[in-house]
């Protein structure tokens, strides 16, 4: 497991100029003109993070919807940190969505903080993850520090043990046996049988 990002993304002169020319508010992050810059950021950070989410440490996928460029300090609150390399890390979309715009800074700042002390949660560039959180059986998150605890709460990392249990339950069940049991029910309308199978599958998914 990679503990932290050692080298933030460095923007080229041309990229900096493009940002200057096209960025006025945080919504501009979505502009097409920044697409290849974002691709460069993702490529760089995948290597730095060992292709894992900075919060839950799950493997990141390669499809565009399976990886997010996470703004550690939300760009909606601090627009000027939108393209700050130290504010960028990769996360899974779930952690990014759940963390949302929660307040990660202990107090308001003017310049981007240069060390870990200003942050309530694990900072992907400043903190060694394993000093703050132990991951047991790949899905149980145990806080070692208050930062670890805040990170678990911010991203609701408890959710992953539930997912792991569901995956295991799903793998353990022989789907054929479900069809067998349901189709053996006598005096049951075929449509009802189909619905029963759907209900059972929905429950274990
Ligand atoms: Zn994650």
UniProtKB/TrEMBL annotation:
InterPro entries: HNH, HNH_nuc. Transmembrane segments: none annotated. Residues 53-101 form the HNH domain. It comes from the Bacteria. It holds the Pfam family HNH. This is HNH domain-containing protein.
